[in-house]
Amino acid sequence: MPRAVRKPVLHVPVETMNREFDGKLLLSLIAADRGFDVYLGGQAAMHENLIALPLGIYFSKGVRSPSRKIFDLLDGFGHSIVALDEEALVRFDLKHFHFKLDPETFGRPRFLFAWGGDNAEAWASFSGYRGTPIIEAGNPRIDLLRPELRGFHREAVAGLRERFGDFILINSNFAVVNHFVKNLTRYAVADWVPPLEADQHKTGFLAHKQEIFQSLLAALPAIAQAVAPATVVVRPHPSENPTIWEVAARGLDNVVVLHEGPVAPWLMAAAAVVHNSCTTAVEAAVVGTPAIWFAPVESAEFDIHLPNALSFKTTTVAELVAAVSTSLVTNGAPPEAIALSETQRLLLDHHIAALDGALASERIVDTMVANLDRLKPRGHALGGRLKARLRYYKWRLKRTWNAYRNPDGRNYLRHKFPELDEGFANDRLHGLAAALGRFEDRRAMRVGPDLLRIV
What pTM did the predictor assign? Predict the structure, then answer.
């Protein structure tokens, strides 16, 4: 009998559940329909079980210097790597964006999937770029905001409106000065960056974020009073410690501090979103919810252009209060922000591909299907495989020791990616199937802790 043709394998890791899971599940379903054997799960669990995974294509969530070690291990086992960058949509200027990249890590993926034209140009202008194909595909996260998938969120949106009525969403992104892990500051740059330059930028950025953070905390009572009896929902970043917000909200009966579920239904249910340099403002622009930029201080170096340019600007607490109050009265339309201007729409289109036409997930899978020969995993000789196993066991030992010494780090990983089970995954899968009228015969099957296989 002829031998069965082995399906190409695709590994889809998820770092942050609420940010990425639904989009990565959609990508996985499309890939399964196109003939891939798909494994989907927590990034930490996938890395810890790397030695047991079948050889395949690894879909990385980033290409920055912290990915070097896992790319070394993947390459040692013979996996091929493709990548996007979850953080590249909302970024610093080119110089400081490039600080995050090192040529060795950046050169490992065989394809790079850009959010859009801006991301593609930023990658191509890096001095360490060596010609890896860059595909302006968009991001699966944005697929979940498109009109075709609004039905996927309908029940959640209705539930939020029933619980909170009219509400203003404050989306906090201050983990760099208020991290979930006490005293941790996440600011990684590549080894080639001059230390003095990196330190100067880090110091300035932290001071800038701290000033904005304190200003927004101080403004919370005025916002709450202005919109009462409507609700103010503060949604801390998944990497942020919510305690400071909870302290600030004490005594404010109409303020709720809550990070719950994906952000899409929150944006669709809110009258407006308040932020500073946050990706949420871009997502709000996609779904048509007004975004209000609170800018008590400004910096050409440290403010992030895209989300702020898509928002209604306020510089004082009085202006902020007026904007949030008006957004409730006009059902989500602060002054001059009823709809995106033509200039803002063109800016959004330049930064995000696949706002219409084929889904970003389909564009990514189409690229992989058309290039399966190029993406075929490379098997290694026995000596190479043994070396890879030795490096892996050393890495696991060090990781286990660090986790033992740092329980806060373990808690942080579990906070970002709660336990994944079949029931939850299949509920989300069935929701996607109902919204799109496809995938009805697919299901997620548990193959290990936080790991699923799409069958």
Answer: 0.94
